[in-house]
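Data deposition worksheet. Section B asks for the primary sequence of the deposited chain exactly as it was used as input, without tags or linkers unless they were present during the calculation. Section C holds the resulting structure in token form. Section D is free text for depositor observations; keep each observation to a single sentence. Incomplete worksheets are returned to the depositor.
Section A, Depositor: J.P.
Section B:
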Amino acid sequence: MPRINRRHALALMTGTALTSACATPGEGAAQSATSEAPDPAVFRHGVASGDPDASSVVIWTRITTLASEVDVTWSVYDDPEMESLVASGAAKATDETDYTLKVVVDALQPGQTYYYRFEAEGTRSRLGRTQTLPVGAVDQLGIALVSCSNYPFGFFNGYDAIARDPEIDFVLHTGDYIYEYGGPEGWGEETASVIGRPHDPPHEIITLADYRRRHAQYKSDSGSREMHAAHPLICCWDDHESANNPWTDGAQNHQPETEGSWAARRAASIQAYYEWMPIREPMPGRTRAQFWRSYIFGDLATLITLETRHTARGKQVDYAEWAPKLNTEEDYAAFRRDVLGDPDRHMISPTELEDISVALSESVAKGQPWRVIGNQIPMARMPVPDVIGLGVLPAPLETSLEAHKRLAWLGKHGLPFYTDTWDGYPVAREAFYDLCKANKASDLLVLTGDSHSFWANILHDKSGENMGIELGTAGITSPGDFVDSGFDAETAKALDQVFSDQLPEVTWTDNFHQGYVRVVLYPDSAKASYVAVSTVLSPIYNTRTIKAFDIQTDGENLVLRQA
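Section C:
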């Protein structure tokens, strides 16, 4: 992939800066996510690009105005000094799309860096940087894996760090780009009251106007604006872009009796997402909900992003519903077999599976070394270890902490940590693995969000066959489950360790940090670096790599080694 040369780096540090400070600070150096030159008021939500292919890319902005419609011009250059114009045009921003504007810029060259800006109401936006996908030989590809940016929990310092990371070419966002919660009881509001970041609107979002307003708030964060201006985005959604834990016919955090139709709420959330994100409209014959795509990076990799929420997912198993019914080992065995293992509970639609099959088979036929899956939710098997029997936690009678009691029960019976993840849909996971094996693609590199924790996992099918490596990212701000559940630091560390020690598919996990995973692919190897920010409670932060792994192939399987 094209790298930032010295001329470009200098441009980023001066008048045409894409970030507020040096684009390549040393790791550990104090940094600020507060821009020294904020975006002008007309472009207060910045600029963004994404959904690239080899000859085109989407560029995006939003106009803040009191006018009923606004004339907007856009320009694309192949140099940061804006001396070489590549493409330009004009469009109108209206209330029909909440004054957002997306342009698919085509007739571009593959594997090239471009620069773009907008102009409206006599004001120019900042300069954004983007890239097209490469063709032919590719010797290096840098991906930033991100997920779970909850505004009340803190500043998006991880985004800001990505904007400054010189090894990143593209950002892969695996969902929970926004959160739907609100009000004094909303998740994170206690922290928000301390750092001054309450959700807007101040209530749980339900209507189209609500979702638009929430997206606007998230893109007002300076770290978000820096990242979007610096790198093109490849993304998929998870649950909180609509509501917590949705399935095709509802969501855990949707109450029809007071919040109206789930179909209407989901449609509103999807419309706002398409307006506010730099993504293409669906191809003819597809709906907006069918949001899965594939990206080809020359001879190096194919990246496939999944949709697992709105087109096929069956309702999640609720432990609270079943726990009173389970009294004997036979009950638990039947629960695992007939409830968790119900073959009619799907994750991915037949149409999506067909598209995945085509993308995998083409990747294998081309001889690409990497097949990357952009995956919302953890794929690895995570049955909770016997935390009481192993002495990690005391007997649950000795505590009032509900999370303690829950882990004790799950660990006693070896039940999955989460039922909203692939663990809650084991038949669907095996069907996905079978499809991969049928296409000779049992060497997956799965990049995962959702859990607010760092993970390094080795995947296996039910027979024990190696299916690849899963790298999971912590939240940009959302806290890890053990910490958020109220466990003290020592206990949370012990829980991290017992998951790593006892679960065959878990090599390492970390609940304590926020940040992102830098994944750099080479033709014969890859490196995963887990980059943590020192704090999300202040825009002043530093970064450090808390863990790194090398990934290599032994001819058939991917091998994970600590770097």
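Section D:
The longest strand covers residues 543-553.
The first helix runs from residue 6 to 13.
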